[in-house]
Q: What sequence folds into this?
C-alpha cells in the first residue's frame, strides 16, 4: 500500500521506500519422537524457537531513556506502532500526522537510514513527540540485539545512531539420525530451517545433499544458543560439526582469520571450502550420468557423454562452479546457448543448453564462484530442460560428481598452530558427546 501526498510533498518522498508487504515467518518443529537428541545446556526453551519479532528491551540502555528524562526535551509523549502487512513508513508517518519531510531526512541518513528499507511486519516503532506534535525522536528494534534511533538536532535535521547489545552465548550439542529426510530429522532434533541450510552449506563441497544422503546417515554439531535477559533469542554459529554419510565421516570446525573472516576447516587445517562447487545448480535429478560409452538418445549410436545432465525446470539459475573468466558465451546447433569458463591454466568448466544468459555474461567477463551465469533450458540437441555440465582438468574430461576438488586457502604457519589450539577442544567435545552427555561433562 502506498500513500498519496500533496503535490508539494512528492519530491521529498521520491526516494522513500515503498510499501512493505513481506510476511512474518514463524518456525515450527515436530516432536523428538523417533530421533535421538541431546543437549549440553540445562536451559529449556521450545526446540526450534526463533525470534522473528523484535521488541524493545524492558531495561533500555542510557542512550534510550525516555526523552522527558534527557536534556533539551521536556514534556514529550511516546507513540508505539507495530508494523502490519501492507504498512509503509510513509503511510505510518502520515497516520500519526508527522511531516513527510522528516521521513525524507531520516531515510537520507547514511548508513542508519538504509535499515529502514527492510522493516518487516511485526517490528515495533517508537515515536517521541513534543507538545506541538512534532517528532523529536524515532527508534525501532532492527533485531533483538540492535536498536536504531534517529534524534532531531538543533538545526532541525536528524542524527542517526545504532545501539547494539551483546547476547550471552552458550555452546550446546545436537545429534540426529536421518530416517526420512535431512530437514525432518534435523527439525526433530531442534534445528531451525536456517541451521539445516547452514549445515548443508558447510559440507556442500563433499556431500551431494540431493543424491548422496541415505537412511541411517548421522550428524552431530556444537552450536551457539543466544540469550538476552535470560530469554532465548535464536542460534548463533555452528562451532563444529560432523556428518556421517554412507559410513564416511566428514568433520568441520569454524575458525576466524583476519584475512578470510569466519570459515570452516578440516581437522588438519585445510579449508573445507573447495575451489569448485560439486553441482552448479539446484536440480530435481540426474537425467544422464558421465558415461564415455553412452548411446545418444537422439541418434541411437555410441557417443561419449563427457558430462552430467542435471534435470531442472526451465529458468532454474545456473551458477559458476568456480571463480574464473568467461572464455565463450555463445550458441551452436548442438550446444544451444552455452558458456565455457576458464578457471586457471588447468581447470575449465562448460555449461550447455541454457535458455538464456545472465546479465553481463560475455566472453572476457570475470565471475566468482556462485555467480549466476545463465538459466536452465532445452536449446540445441536437448530432449527436455536440463543443464549439461562438464569438468575438465588439463583438457581431459572428468566425472564432475567424483573428481577430487582442490581445497581453497589453507592455513599456514602461526595461523595453523592457532587453529589446532582452537579446534582441539571442540573436536574432543564432539567425540565425548557421542559417548553420552555424562561422559562429556566428566571430561
A:
Amino acid at each position: 500500500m502506498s500513500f498519496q501526498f500533496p503535490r508539494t510533498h512528492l519530491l521529498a518522498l521520491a526516494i522513500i521506500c515503498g510499501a512493505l508487504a513481506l510476511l512474518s515467518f514463524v518456525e515450527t518443529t515436530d516432536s523428538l519422537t523417533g530421533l535421538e537428541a541431546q543437549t549440553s545446556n540445562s536451559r529449556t526453551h521450545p526446540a526450534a524457537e526463533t525470534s522473528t519479532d523484535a521488541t524493545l528491551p524492558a531495561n533500555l540502555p542510557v542512550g534510550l531513556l525516555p526523552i522527558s528524562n534527557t536534556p533539551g526535551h521536556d514534556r514529550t509523549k511516546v507513540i508505539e506502532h507495530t508494523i502490519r502487512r501492507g504498512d509503509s513508513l510513509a503511510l505510518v508517518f502520515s497516520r500519526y500526522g508527522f511531516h513527510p519531510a522528516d521521513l525524507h531526512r531520516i531515510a537520507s541518513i547514511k548508513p542508519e537510514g538504509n535499515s529502514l528499507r527492510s522493516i518487516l511486519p511485526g517490528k515495533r516503532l517508537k515515536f517521541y513527540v513534543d507538545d506541538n506534535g512534532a517528532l523529536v525522536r524515532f527508534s525501532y528494534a532492527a533485531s533483538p540485539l540492535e536498536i536504531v534511533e534517529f534524534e532531531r538536532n538543533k538545526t532541525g535535521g536528524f542524527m542517526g545512531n545504532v545501539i547494539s547489545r551483546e547476547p550471552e552465548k552458550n555452546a550446546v550439542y545436537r545429534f540426529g539420525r536421518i530416517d526420512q529426510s535431512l530437514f525432518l530429522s534435523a527439525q526433530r532434533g531442534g534445528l531451525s530451517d536456517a541451521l539445516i541450510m547452514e549445515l548443508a552449506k558447510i559440507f556442500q563441497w563433499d556431500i551431494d545433499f540431493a543424491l548422496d544422503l541415505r537412511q541411517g546417515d548421522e550428524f552431530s554439531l556444537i552450536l551457539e544458543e543466544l540469550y538476552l535477559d535470560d530469554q532465548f533469542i535464536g542460534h548463533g554459529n555452528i562451532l563444529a560439526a560432523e556428518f556421517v554419510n554412507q559410513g564416511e565421516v566428514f568433520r568441520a570446525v569454524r575458525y576466524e582469520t583476519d584475512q578470510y573472516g569466519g570459515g570452516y576447516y578440516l581437522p588438519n587445517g585445510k579449508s573445507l571450502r573447495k575451489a569448485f562447487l560439486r553441482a552448479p545448480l539446484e536440480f530435481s535429478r540426474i537425467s544422464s550420468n558421465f558415461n564415455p560409452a553412452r548411446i545418444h538418445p537422439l541418434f541411437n549410436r555410441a557417443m561419449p557423454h563427457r558430462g552430467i545432465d542435471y534435470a531442472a525446470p526451465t529458468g532454474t539459475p545456473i551458477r559458476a562452479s568456480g571463480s574464473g573468466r568467461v572464455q565463450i558465451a555463445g550458441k551452436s546447433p548442438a550446444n544451444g546457448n552455452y558458456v565455457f569458463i576458464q578457471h586457471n591454466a588447468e581447470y575449465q568448466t562448460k555449461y550447455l543448453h541454457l535458455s538464456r544468459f545472465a546479465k553481463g555474461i560475455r566472453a572476457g567477463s570475470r565471475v566468482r564462484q556462485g555467480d549466476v551465469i545463465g538459466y536452465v533450458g532445452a536449446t540445441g540437441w536437448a530432449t527436455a530442460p536440463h543443464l549439461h555440465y562438464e569438468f575438465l582438468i588439463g583438457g581431459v574430461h572428468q566425472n564432475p560428481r567424483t573428481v577430487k576438488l582442490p581445497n581453497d586457502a589453507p592455513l599456514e604457519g602461526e595461523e595453523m598452530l592457532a587453529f589446532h589450539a582452537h579446534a582441539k577442544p571442540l573436536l574432543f567435545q564432539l567425540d565425548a558427546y557421542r559417548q553420552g552427555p555424562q561422559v562429556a561433562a566428566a571430561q
About this structure: Helices lie at 7-10, 89-95, 100-107, 182-188, 193-202, 413-434, 437-442. The CA atoms of residues 11 and 151 lie 23 Å apart. Residues 167-273+408-443 form a domain with the Nuclear Transport Factor 2; Chain: A, fold (CATH 3.10.450.350). The chain has a mean pLDDT of 80.
